[in-house]
UniProtKB/TrEMBL annotation:
This is RsmB/NOP family class I SAM-dependent RNA methyltransferase. S-adenosyl-L-methionine binds at C246, A247, A248, P249, G250, G251, K252, D267, D293, D309. InterPro entries: MeTrfase_RsmB-F_NOP2_cat, MeTrfase_RsmB-F_NOP2_dom, NusB-like_sf, NusB_RsmB_TIM44, RCMT, RsmB/NOL1/NOP2-like_CS, SAM-dependent_MTases_sf. It is an enzyme of class 2 (transferase). It comes from Pelagibacterium nitratireducens. Residues 137-433 form the SAM-dependent MTase RsmB/NOP-type domain. Residues 266-293 form a coiled coil.
Length: 435
């Protein structure tokens, strides 16, 4: 066993397999860290294997139907994860030799007590995939998105948009940064392209995030262009008291603080808020950090504005977090819709008369977006919609809805000819009516 574990490349594949197994069981994907794999090259490859297996999950399901007549054996340890990673290598990782993928796939199974008894099955399956690689690489993209979601999205956005979503799913996303202040020289050094507001996009990078220019000096933070819009549309003023509800990972808090607002950042997770504090320290920005359940936080109507980035299905983030497509279901979305309504009502009670409320979700579901806007109008008479104008988005009118909200989808073309996709988001703004 020790000789097997010493095989070059085996340890990182085992880490990838155990990591993928946990995601398949319902845990969110978090990159494999240096505590598990010391070498940065090993971590990069292991994380790449996991993410590619997740991006192509639906296509690998179709491969299983062809090469495993009885399906994947149950109670077999890491077997399914080992197969998915090896198949991902054979079909979509051209820089890894097929014989290496097969050999290390078999040895990965053998290194696990429950999976090891299926080593011959692994060898046979992978050799079959190798022989039929051209056929499997040509699988239709309609297997990539779960059928119930594809049907739902087709009804909302059209079949062409869903086909584009599938294309985006299997692409590596660019890196978006929000600059603390305008800095053309830094953009040039980073090799970035301005997108909207203070968002800069790096189509490619050859260094870890922490090694990029300006990181150590606190000149920017990582934030998707879509996620940067809600705080911008709150129009925070210097000295205003603003509550950032469900604040982690903290990008919006940083935006509000950099505008000079007195920010209270609240989230239920102490660990996540510790990371928010560390990021604010790096950026030399200040905010009051509160760890609490948002629905239990009741200081009264003391805020000039509230930004509610409500807990949601996060289906709009599938290009960066492909596992959300595996973990979501209709019941879970309905439960989130009910929670969002409670939070909207509670956030309203925290606003001063005349105060502003931004409601946003990184979701593509109408129930969490457009339908919530209609619910507010019928159920919270103290709020009135405040239409968002194209001028607030540098003239970009594509995402504006007839109701004056913002609907972003991954298939939407960005302004300024910037390439690449963006997260799906819904943003609505309200004013609490004066007493």
């Amino acid at each position: 066993m020790n000789e097997t574990r010493d095989l070059p490349g085996l340890k990182l594949r085992l880490e990838a397999a155990f990591h993928l197994k946990s995601v398949l069981e319902g845990k969110p994907f978090a990159p494999i860290g240096p505590d598990r794999l010391a070498q940065s090259r090993d971590r990069a490859l292991a994380n790449r294997m996991v993410t590619i297996a997740l991006r192509h999950h639906g296509q690998i399901d179709a491969v299983f139907k062809e090469v495993l007549a009885k399906g994947v054996p149950q109670r077999a340890g890491i077997l399914e994860a080992v197969l998915r990673i090896a198949i991902a290598q054979l079909l979509w990782l051209d820089d890894i030799a097929a014989h290496s993928a097969i050999h290390l796939g078999v040895e990965s199974a053998r290194a696990d007590k429950r999976a090891g008894r299926f080593d011959k099955l692994v060898n046979g399956v992978l050799r079959s995939v190798q022989r039929q690689s051209e056929q499997f690489q040509a699988l239709d993209g309609d297997t990539l998105i779960p059928g119930w979601l594809a049907a739902q999205w087709a009804g909302t956005y059209g079949a062409d948009a869903v086909a584009r979503f599938a294309e985006i799913l299997i692409q590596s996303p660019p890196l978006d940064l929000t600059l603390k202040s305008p800095d053309p020289d830094l953009i040039a050094v980073l090799g970035g392209q301005p997108v909207l507001g203070e968002t800069v996009r790096l189509a490619e990078r050859d260094a870890a995030v922490a090694d990029l220019a300006g990181f150590a000096e606190g000149k920017w933070w990582v934030q998707d262009v879509s996620a940067a819009l809600p705080a911008r549309l709150l129009n925070a003023g210097a000295g205003e008291a603003i509550l950032d509800l469900c604040a982690a990972p903290g990008g919006k808090t940083a935006q509000l603080a950099s505008a000079g607002a007195r920010v209270t950042a609240l989230d239920i997770s102490a660990d996540r808020m510790a990371r928010v504090r560390a990021n604010l320290d790096r950026l030399e920005l200040n905010a009051e950090i509160v760890v609490a359940d948002a629905l239990d936080y009741a200081p009264g109507p003391v805020f000039d504005a509230v930004l509610l980035d409500a807990p949601c299905s996060a289906t709009g983030t599938f290009r960066r977090h492909p596992e959300v497509l595996l973990h979501r279901n209709a019941q879970g979305i309905a439960e989130r819709v009910a929670l969002q309504r409670k939070m909207l009502a509670h956030a309203t009670a925290l606003l001063k008369p005349g105060g502003r409320l931004i409601y946003c979700v990184c979701s593509l579901e109408r129930g969490e977006g457009e339908d919530q806007l209609a619910w507010v109008q019928s159920s919270l008479p103290e709020l009135e919609p405040s239409a968002i104008a194209a001028s607030e988005l540098d003239g970009w009118d594509t995402p504006l809805t007839p109701q004056g909200a913002v609907r972003l989808t991954p298939a939407m073309a960005l302004p300024n000819g910037v390439g690449g996709a963006l997260d799906g988001f819904f943003i609505a703004r309200f004013i609490r009516k004066p007493v």
